[in-house]
Automatic annotation (TrEMBL):
InterPro entries: LysM, LysM_dom_sf, NLP_P60_dom, Papain-like_cys_pep_sf, Peptidase_C40. This is Peptidoglycan endopeptidase. It comes from Lysinibacillus composti. Residues 1-27 form the signal peptide. Keywords: Hydrolase, Protease, Repeat, Signal, Thiol protease. Residues 75-99 have a biased composition (Low complexity).
Length: 326
């Protein structure tokens, strides 16, 4: 009888052992397909390009078809039992430990800097102008340098301003060589402008920047030159036309060769040209807005991009000025 009691106590003690659930990190992966970019992969996997690059030790935005990327780290659980004995009369308890989630702040703030507009700020934080005005009790679109604006919902900087969702195309070497020679010959023909625009030109440029920023978010349409949709040269032409400069509708390459001259020091309102985007040679253009940024009709529509992004840095050709701007 005593022996049976000992066995019963031992079984009860084992059943009463606590079970602790420990988090275990498993890596979820994604295999790169034709047409993929880091931006597309980040969006479809609810992460950011910066996180993708960190997790995969990527030094730039270049990826290859068939490449396997770590896209997220999921938390699964594995059960381990303790050896701590509990009294036989104590009910068995199961405990679960889960990592505390970092809650996003309710709001952030933006200090208005020189050149800021509500359009630019709304694009930076991926929010609507109407919401910014509501959050800050603004009766108009007027803001002042040094003014601190509240941005609700914990919104951070919009991802498209950190990355470029543009296709990466490999062109045949002979095409690249021919295009480079054409670009070099054209720039060598030009006498670089070493002064800024006149008072009249500056007034035109002020209108150019205001109009361009008012068009943020309009979709990209190949061949488009209206507010229903723009391509890159159609966007530039629309902006300059509405700023008072008569410009004929042309391609970015035509503008590069026939209508503009390179400048030594660009100012906001000048244009910037790129090569080897959707085709070899001069194939894209935008409007420089200062601080290393330009506004253009990209694949995601009219947006602001940074020249320091590897995609644009690798394809940058020159800052130029329309010959009709004095």
């Amino acid at each position: 009888m005593v022996h049976k009691k000992k066995i019963m106590v031992l079984c009860a003690s084992l059943l009463a052992s606590s079970i602790i659930v420990a988090p275990v990190a498993d890596a979820a992966t994604y295999v790169v397909k034709k047409g993929d970019t880091l931006t597309k992969i980040a969006k479809s996997n609810q992460t950011t390009v910066a996180q993708l690059k960190t997790k995969n030790n990527l030094k730039n935005d270049n990826i290859m078809v068939g490449q396997k990327l770590v896209v997220s780290t999921t938390t699964t659980t594995s059960k381990t039992t303790t050896t701590t004995k509990q009294p036989a009369t104590t009910p068995t308890q199961t405990t679960s430990k889960t990592p505390a989630k970092n809650e996003a702040p309710a709001s952030t703030s933006h200090k208005v800097a020189k050149g800021d507009t509500l359009s630019k700020i709304s694009s930076l934080y991926a929010v609507k102008i109407a919401d910014i005005k509501k959050w800050n009790n603004l009766a108009s679109d007027t803001i002042f340098i040094g003014q601190v604006l509240t941005i609700e919902n914990g919104q951070g900087l919009k991802q498209p301003l950190e990355v470029v969702d543009e296709p990466i195309i490999d062109f045949p070497a002979p095409q690249i060589v021919q295009a480079e020679e054409m670009i070099k010959d054209q720039l060598n023909k030009e006498k670089e402008i070493q002064v800024g625009p006149t008072t009249k030109g500056k007034a035109t440029y002020n209108k150019v920047i205001t109009i361009a920023e008012s068009l943020l978010g309009i979709p990209y349409v190949y061949g488009g030159n209206t507010t229903a949709g723009f391509d890159c040269s159609g966007f530039v032409r629309y902006v300059y036309m509405n700023a008072g400069l008569e410009i004929t509708r042309k391609s970015s390459e035509d503008y590069f060769i026939n209508d503009t001259t390179s400048v030594e020091t660009p100012v906001p309102g000048d244009v910037v040209f790129f090569k080897n985007t959707y085709r070899s040679g001069i194939s894209h253009m935008g409007i420089y807005i200062g601080d290393g940024q330009f506004i253009h009709a990209g694949s995601d529509g009219v947006e602001v991009s940074k020249l320091e992004y590897s995609y644009w840095k690798d394809r940058f050709v020159a800052y130029k000025r329309f010959n009709d701007v004095k």
